[in-house]
Amino acid sequence: MAQSPVLRCLTAPGNVVAQAPFALMCGLARKLRRLPVMNMKTVFEFVKGTLAGQNQFASGGLLLMIVGAIGVYVRSLPLRLWSWVIYQTTMMLTVTDDDTAFEWVKEWFLEQKFLKRVRWLDLDTSLRGDEAALIPAPGSHRFWYCGRPFWVWFSRKDETQGWTPRRLESLTFRTIGRDPKFLKQFVQEVIACHKRKITLASYLYHFDDGWRYVHAYTPRMLDSVILRPGEKEHLVEDIQTFRSSDERYRRLGVPYHRGYLLYGPPGTGKTSLVSALGAKFGMSIYAVNLTELNDRTLKVAISSVPANSVVLFEDIDCMKAGNRRPDTGEWADKAIQPLGNEKADPADRFGVTLSGLLNVVDGFHAPENVLFVMTTNKIEALDPALMRPGRIDYKLFLGKAAHVQKIELYRRFFPEISQDEASEFVESHFAETMAEFQGLLLSLEQEQSRSEAECEEATALV
Ligand SMILES: Nc1ncnc2c1ncn2[C@@H]1O[C@H](COP(=O)(O)OP(=O)(O)OP(=O)(O)O)[C@@H](O)[C@H]1O
Ligand SMILES: [Mg+2]
Hints:
It contains 16 helices and 13 strands. The radius of gyration is 36 Å and the shape is elongated. A hairpin with a 6-residue loop joins strand 5 (about 150-160) and strand 6. The protein has three domains: about 90-200, no CATH class; about 220-325 and about 345-395, 3-Layer(aba) Sandwich (Rossmann fold), CATH 3.40.50; about 405-460, no CATH class. The strands form three sheets. It has a seven-stranded mixed beta sheet, with helices on both faces. A four-stranded antiparallel beta sheet has the order 1-6-5-4. It has a two-stranded antiparallel sheet with strand order 2-3. The protein is α/β, with parallel strands linked by helices. Helix content is about 45%, strand content about 15%. Helix 1 (about 5-10) packs across helix 4 and helix 10 packs parallel to helix 12 (about 355-360). It binds adenosine-5'-triphosphate (ATP) and magnesium ion.
């Protein structure tokens, strides 16, 4: 039986396999050299010529290549077709953990009925701290939402992110349909769920390559922070007015944020007051440590603070950015150099510059509907640009403990004691600040509890 030229060539005795590609390439190269400028017709002619040509290696190899390519293509057809159908009939939504909305989606899971049926769960303390929450585990899950099937794919990378123990996580939702309105509605529900949550409670976050929930945080109660008469009430009223003036700010075209500066000696209640205000208004606190950030990361951090939050810059005088600019020197220099120290060591370049800070507090990158709160022990060290209205709109000095403040704190510790007795105690015990006075009361209370316990023990023995 006559063999085809291709088969003959491939099965010929002495056909060294290693020679075939070389011969094939030589044949093709020879033909290509002879080709004039190629168009589709000449390509076709070339292929036809090669297939029917003299060089059996070249024509056999080319035929095999074409057959192989067609085979691969045909085999991938069902998958391609399936992907095309899926692409045409479904919608997808992805959220990664470097976005604040990632936490919101997790929170939303907790409110869903289908969670009861999910059998692969993940224990999560990033949402509710000690009240560990159960959310769907990494992997694929299905549920029904508004009469449509939803698939969610929760992915978590095995490798950690740089030097942090964090592993990249993402959530991908897919549902049937082509109308993006439905996905927008889904997102609105997630946002609404988040808003419900934040108006109920106040959480503390710190920035570490993304906002991280601080587990060991308990907000203060406002009545546990004792200021001079009227101070607290006035501040609360100011915040209330701001929070209800959303429409007015917009109408007037004024950026909707407000800056507060709490200043005074250490231990006078600045941090406690911020915590208490957060709790009073159900606003979470986003604490920024400017020494750990640079201008770029600060911008990222502040722009991802959700509305209705407090952005807290603690001890702003200790941070280079907050410092007063030296009297000599030009504005332009200051905008690009770390503040107050032109010969700064290289590590300082990682700090935030004054212009970086000013921009996020009241500039192009300032977020809307947030309270900026700064605390300091040295107001005189702050740059006037930071203190101008729009950046600091309300200053409150928390000074040394007044007589009335001490009496009120004493009566919180010992409610059974009369006003006169409390006053007598305050007069006979020296304490400059409320922190010092609180220390005094704590040891007194401890002593009292111990003697009461001893008394009870003695009575029991008799
Ligand atoms: N006005 C106050 N009312 C009630 N407690 C106070 C008050 N001031 C201070 N304290 C108590 O003193 C301690 C220190 O308070 P806090 O940390 O708020 O002071 P601070 O002004 O932020 O100090 P620093 O400037 O050192 O940061 C807290 O335990 C708090 O309970
Ligand atoms: Mg403090």
